[in-house]
Design a protein that fits this description.
Strand order of the largest sheet: 3-2-1-6-5-4
Radius of gyration: 15 Å
Pfam families: DUF2111
Order of helices and strands: HHEEEHEEEHH
Protein name: DUF2111 domain-containing protein
Number of strands: 6
InterPro entries: UCP006557
Organism: Methanococcus aeolicus (strain ATCC BAA-1280 / DSM 17508 / OCM 812 / Nankai-3)
Number of domains: 1
Number of helices: 5
Length: 129
């Protein structure tokens, strides 16, 4: 059921997941869509678009890759975004992304700090480029 909602769902179907991610990330802007349908865009605790196509979301679905880019079109044009495909094995079901309000500084902070007490909670690639 969840797999079908992620692959074919509309904005109503994926909204609870997108909203949970919005809350988990301290309310940074979140966008999410299924593979087959437009999705949602959430900012400041509100759904601002419930028919969001998302250029970078579509690219992540097509490539099956995580994208850390600056959006070239749309409401986040010029802003750094991080978008990940939602997969079941190799099958891409949809994509979700956030506006990287740190401008990429989070990765730099991890690289600089390399705090041993954090290392056990983070994957090895968190400390590599």
């Amino acid at each position: 059921m969840l797999k079908e909602a992620l692959k074919k769902g509309d904005s109503k179907d994926i909204l609870p997941i997108a909203y949970a991610i919005h809350i988990l990330t301290n309310k940074v802007p979140v966008a999410m869509r299924s593979k087959e349908n437009a999705g949602v865009r959430i900012e400041k605790d509100k759904v601002v678009d419930d028919n969001y196509e998302g250029h970078v979301l579509k690219m992540a679905i097509e490539t099956g890759q995580t994208l850390k880019v600056s959006a070239i079109v749309g409401p986040y044009k010029g802003l750094p975004v991080i978008v990940v495909p939602i997969k079941d094995g190799e099958e891409v079901l949809g994509a979700v992304g956030i506006v990287d309000i740190t401008g990429g500084m989070f990765e730099e902070i991890l690289a600089i700090s390399k705090r041993p007490e954090l290392a056990k909670y983070l994957p090895d690639e968190a400390y590599t480029y």
